[in-house]
């Protein structure tokens, strides 16, 4: 992974997304005051052709397991990664979540070889998750299935061509971080209930 990919992951990557870079267990019991659904072990798998960003771009992997806690209020569901709680919509058994963050890639790069006066380059990452719960009350044997997607796009007015494979190299040591921008990494996911917390 290039230094820029590492910077992007640290700043707008899984640490502030729907998976929170958490490949262990969620350590929170959910949103305070909400009704507990439970903690789920989630397996995410990338189907063939689901990654247009390039192999390993933005820390992409083909599959991984993480843990989340779900709780709900009327029409609302909370996806708690242990580091933050994200609010989504809940209609009957169907849920949807979305979150996004933007990073100035020039400002986060401390490479002394980076020339002054480069055009700004900001990238927005938007994460979306949606699926169906087998039982909105949770409990032993309950599951969910759905999709998880990460979309990366260049902010209007930015020039990130040097970060794309085949783009202009603007200084010695500069490396691309993606095969193309905008791009998308998508997964199917299944969750299995593990506990009430």
Largest sheet: 8 strands, antiparallel, barrel
Measured by DSSP, the beta-strand proportion falls in 35-45%
Instruction: Classify the helix fraction into a percent range.
Output: under 10%
Mean pLDDT: 82
Low-confidence stretches: 12-16, 21-28
Query: Numbering strands along the chain, what is their spatial order in the largest sheet?
Result: 1-2-3-4-5-6-7-8
Structural class: mainly beta
* Spatial extent as radius of gyration: 18 Å
Q: Would you count the extended β strands for me?
A: 8
Order of helices and strands: HEEEEEEEE
Q: How many DSSP H or I helices?
A: 1
Shape descriptor: elongated
Distance between the termini: 35 Å
Overall tally of structural domains: 1
Structure description:
With 197 residues, the chain is mainly beta. It has one domain. It contains one helix and eight strands. The chain has one helix at residues 3-12, and strands at residues 35-45, 63-73, 76-80, 85-91, 94-104, 122-133, 143-154, 183-195. Strands 1-2-3-4-5-6-7-8 form an eight-stranded antiparallel β-barrel. A hairpin with a 4-residue loop joins strand 3 and strand 4 (85-91). The longest helix has 10 residues, at 3-12. The chain is elongated and about 55 Å long. The model is unreliable at 12-16 and 21-28 (pLDDT under 50).
């Amino acid at each position: 992974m290039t230094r820029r990919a590492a910077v992007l992951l640290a700043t707008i990557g899984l640490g502030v997304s729907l998976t929170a870079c958490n490949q262990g267990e969620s350590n929170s019991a959910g949103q305070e005051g909400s009704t507990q659904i439970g903690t789920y072990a989630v397996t995410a798998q990338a189907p063939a052709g689901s990654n247009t960003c390039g192999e390993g771009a933005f820390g992409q992997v083909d599959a991984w397991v993480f843990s989340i806690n779900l709780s709900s209020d009327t029409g609302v569901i909370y996806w708690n990664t242990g580091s933050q709680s994200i609010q989504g919509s809940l209609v009957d058994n169907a849920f949807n979540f979305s979150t996004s963050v933007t990073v100035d890639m020039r400002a986060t790069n401390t490479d002394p070889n980076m020339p002054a006066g480069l055009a700004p380059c900001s990238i927005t990452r938007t994460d979306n998750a949606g699926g169906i719960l087998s039982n909105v009350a949770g409990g032993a044997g309950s599951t969910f299935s759905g999709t998880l997607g990460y979309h990366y796009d260049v902010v209007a007015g930015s020039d990130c061509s040097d970060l794309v494979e085949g783009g202009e190299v603007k200084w010695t040591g500069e490396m691309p971080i993606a095969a193309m921008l905008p791009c998308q990494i998508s997964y199917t996911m299944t969750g299995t209930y593990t506990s009430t917390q």
